[in-house]
Structure formats: structure tokens, C-alpha cells
Design brief:
By secondary structure, the protein is α/β, with parallel strands linked by helices. The protein folds into 3 domains: 133 residues, Orthogonal Bundle (Fumarate Reductase Iron-sulfur Protein, Chain B, domain 2); 232 residues, Rossmann fold (3-Layer(aba) Sandwich), CATH 3.40.50; 57 residues, no CATH class. The strands form 2 sheets. The protein has a 6-stranded parallel sheet with strand order 1-10-7-4-2-3, sandwiched between helices. Helix 2 runs antiparallel to helix 12 and helix 16 packs parallel to helix 19. The longest helix has 22 residues. It is globular, with a radius of gyration of 25 Å.
């Protein structure tokens, strides 16, 4: 077992037994579950909408090279600049070069999971640049020195009392402030940063090839401020965020809102097609988009895993997953958590090091059932497991155990052979790996086959 897998099991064990943590998560996911059905009512044919969204993403990913080139051509016509980054090291180097060029001391950030993938905040701080998260949930997590807990709701695991205590400790506020008061405190602190920052950094929910623009979806308006107040706007987005046309947003924006937060549509939906144009008074003087690969072309080259690139990061699969609801987001030890994270992380990083995430699933299929773009997530988890075995990332003991199990399962006489006590001993004692993190198996005194024969005789 790798150290990464051992750490995952250790963290998961602790969180699974933390009843206070489970109570907070169930409360917040319960509120999500209560409002999502209301958002779904806006679709006359929900299943058809999801199917169409999947088909649009299929087209975008299958013609990815053409879509990205068209986007770059349209984006640069309006004064934007595109940087292609193969990995995180190259992306960080490009960002640092821009910061040095602009004599940047403060960066404001908003709406970007991909910057967590790059560990951008830590990198900027190491280089003497202050990086401030402006979304409330991300800001809370930054104050606490923690990464985001969830794709959509970064501080889902914290109660209002936890946040009040954190603000009291870090910002010297009065203890026991209400959520409204806490929001006003954060707003007061953050509004000063927008005018101080030389550079604003955002992600992109979608990259739109036919207009050469990005679409940003949010509920607080901080991405708009981060993109417009500083003189330089940097967008960092994965290659897979592309969609062919602006008209596709009429489908994707409501889907993302409903499956992400249960809303019919989010509060702020913004299209940005480049820097400030001649005669315009608002917007940055320079806009740079960093297109990040960082392992995504590994997924693109994998015919079976490619479907996972359709993901629009709505977070619905996390809220539906019984594993995520018990162990929480931080136990995964990676940027992308839950079912989608378990599918893509072994391909974005290394299969041998991260294959254990594909086993962190009950294979109940609930993730596939709730996916807004109908990705067959539970099947992709199985594909990852098969790929790990095919590439030889299993121990000799595991291979022998499954070979014996297969041999017995395919032979009726062997399955009927021996007492239930003997079978229990073989599975639970002889192959100790099975019970290391699972309950013991308890075989019935008679197999179904034996009971069927007895019934027929009588």
C-alpha cells in the first residue's frame, strides 16, 4: 500500500467516526436536497436536457483541438492573450512572470478550483505576493488554513458557530456574530483589497469558442469585481471547460445552477470576451487566459475515461455519494473529491499512487443517477480499477486471493464444499486483507443451490 493510500484510510477512519462532522454535513446536504427538486421543475424534459448537455460536451471534447484554436483566434482579436500550459510548473512560472512584469504585490482571486490544483496561493506567498480569496466560503477556508472542502460550497463542513469562532480568533470580531454580520465583516475586509490589487485571477465555468469568451457563474459578485477592478485579469482554466457556442449557455447555466445549488439560475452570470475596448470605461487593461493541461490530455487519450471531461463541476455527485457524506472532502487528499475526483485524479496524477480512490465507492450508482451531464461515473470507477490491475498495480497476495475466489465462484461443487465455519475462516482469517477495513463475511450454513435442491426433494 502506498503512503498516499495509507493516509487516505487513516483520515477516512477518523472522519467516519466523527459524529459532529457527520451532523454538519447531513444538515447542509439536507438543505441542498430540499431545494434541488424545486430547481428541476423549470425543465419540461429534464432527462432530455441532460442528454443534450452531454451531447454538446461530447462534440466539444471530440473536436477539442478545433474548438480551442477557434477560441484563441476569437479571443485574441479583441486584445486577449492565450498561454498554453502543459503542467502546473509551467502555469505557475507564467503567472509569476506576469506578476513581476506588473510589479504585483496583491492578487485577488475568485471562482477557481484549478488554482487549488496548482496550489497557487502558497506559491504566490512564497514569492512575496499576497493572494486573497474573495468568495466567502473560500475566504473562510483561507483564514482557517484549509483547502476547500467541496467543489461548490468550500466551507460546507463548518457551522455558523464555527465561522463566528474563526472570525473572532483571526479578525478580532465580537464572538457569536450572526451569519449576516459575519458576511458584512468579510465584505468590509475584502472590498479594500479589490482597489489595492494589481492583478485579479478567476477561473471559468465555461470557455466559449464561437465568441472567444469565458462564462463565470456566481452568487456573490466577487468574480466580477476581481475581473474588473485590477488592471490585469488572469483567467486560469482547464482545457475541458470548452463549449462550442454562446447559445449553449441557455442549457448549461440552468443545469449548473439547479444541480449545483438548487437555484433556477445563479445571481450573477457573466460573459467576458477580452480586456477593456476603446471607448469603454470598465474592465481590465489586459486579459490573459492560461489554458491548463496538467494531465487532462491523458484522459483525452483514454477512450473510456474521456467521458469524465464532460464534467461541469456542479458538485451533485459529491452530495449524493454515501462515501463522501461519511468521510468528508478533506479525507481524499486531492483537489477534486467525491466520485468525479476519484475518477479523474488517478489519470491527472499517477494511477499507482491514486488508484485507491477508485475503490472508495459503494458502486451504488447514485453519482451517475444525479450527474447533470449523465457521466457514467460508477462505471468509470470500475474502469479505473480494471486499468490498475491491467497495469500490474496489485500485490501478489491480492492476485492469488482473487484467483482463488474466481475459481470457487465458477465451480458449483467448490461453492457447496465445506461448512460455513470453514468458509468464514478462509475469507476472514486466511485472507486478512478483506477484514482489515471491512466487517467479516458470514456465510450461510447452506448455499442457495443446496436449499433449492432440498426444497425440490421435499
Amino acid at each position: 500500500m502506498t503512503e498516499t493510500a495509507a493516509n487516505f484510510i487513516a483520515r477516512s477512519t477518523v472522519k467516519a467516526e466523527d459524529l459532529d462532522h457527520r451532523k454538519k454535513i447531513n444538515f447542509n446536504i439536507g438543505r441542498y436536497n430540499a431545494v434541488v427538486p424545486q430547481g428541476k421543475q423549470q425543465f419540461a424534459e429534464l432527462n432530455l436536457a441532460r442528454e443534450r448537455a452531454k451531447n454538446i460536451k461530447w462534440r466539444a471534447i471530440e473536436t477539442l483541438d478545433q474548438q480551442l484554436e477557434e477560441f484563441e483566434s476569437n479571443f485574441t482579436k479583441r486584445g486577449g492573450r492565450v498561454i498554453w500550459a502543459e503542467d502546473s510548473k509551467q502555469a505557475l512560472a507564467e503567472i509569476l512572470n506576469i506578476c513581476k512584469e506588473k510589479n504585483c504585490r496583491t492578487v485577488v482571486k475568485s471562482k477557481s478550483m484549478v488554482t487549488e490544483e496548482l496550489k497557487l496561493n502558497h506559491f504566490l506567498e512564497e514569492n512575496g505576493i499576497e493572494s486573497v480569496e474573495t468568495d466567502l466560503g473560500e475566504y473562510i477556508q483561507q483564514l482557517d488554513g484549509e483547502p476547500p472542502y467541496h467543489i461548490v460550497t468550500p466551507a460546507m463542513h463548518k457551522s455558523k458557530e464555527d465561522v463566528a469562532k474563526l472570525f473572532y480568533e483571526k479578525l478580532n470580531t465580537k464572538p457569536n456574530l450572526t451569519p449576516e454580520q459575519l458576511t458584512l465583516v468579510a465584505r468590509e475586509k475584502l472590498r479594500k483589497k479589490y482597489v489595492q490589487a494589481e492583478i485579479g485571477i478567476t477561473g471559468a465555468n465555461f470557455i466559449i469558442s464561437d465568441i472567444g469568451g469565458i462564462a463565470v457563474t456566481e452568487n456573490e459578485g466577487n468574480a466580477r469585481l476581481s475581473a474588473s477592478f485590477p488592471k490585469t485579469h488572469i483567467v486560469i482554466a482547464g482545457l475541458e471547460k470548452i463549449i462550442p457556442s454562446m447559445t449553449d449557455l441557455g442549457l448549461f447555466w440552468p443545469l449548473l445552477a439547479t444541480y449545483g445549488t438548487g437555484q433556477r439560475i445563479t445571481v450573477y452570470n457573466t460573459l467576458i470576451t477580452g480586456p477593456k475596448q476603446p471607448g469603454e470605461t470598465d474592465g481590465p487593461e489586459e486579459m490573459i487566459l492560461i489554458l491548463l493541461d496538467n494531465g487532462r490530455t491523458n484522459i483525452l487519450a483514454n477512450a473510456k475515461a474521456r467521458e469524465s471531461l464532460y464534467c461541469i463541476r456542479c458538485g451533485a455527485c459529491l452530495n449524493a455519494c454515501p462515501i463522501y457524506k461519511n468521510i468528508g472532502g478533506h479525507a481524499y487528499g486531492t483537489t477534486y473529491r467525491g466520485p468525479i475526483g476519484s475518477v479523474i485524479t488517478p489519470h491527472l496524477r499517477e494511477m499507482e499512487e491514486w488508484k485507491h480512490l477508485s475503490y472508495a465507492s459503494s458502486l451504488c450508482g447514485n453519482c451517475t443517477e444525479v450527474c447533470s451531464v449523465k457521466i457514467n461515473l460508477h462505471e468509470l470507477l470500475l474502469e479505473n480499477r480494471a486499468e490498475a490491475v491491467d497495469e500490474g498495480y496489485t500485490s501478489l497476495g491480492e492476485k492469488l486471493a482473487w484467483k482463488a475466489w474466481r475459481q470457487a465462484s465458477l465451480n458449483r461443487n467448490m461453492m457447496n464444499m465445506g461448512s460455513s465455519k470453514l468458509k468464514n475462516w478462509v475469507v476472514n482469517k486466511a485472507f486478512k486483507a478483506w477484514t482489515a477495513h471491512r466487517d467479516q463475511l458470514d456465510f450461510a450454513s447452506k448455499t442457495f443451490n443446496q436449499r433449492w435442491r432440498d426444497e425440490r426433494k421435499s
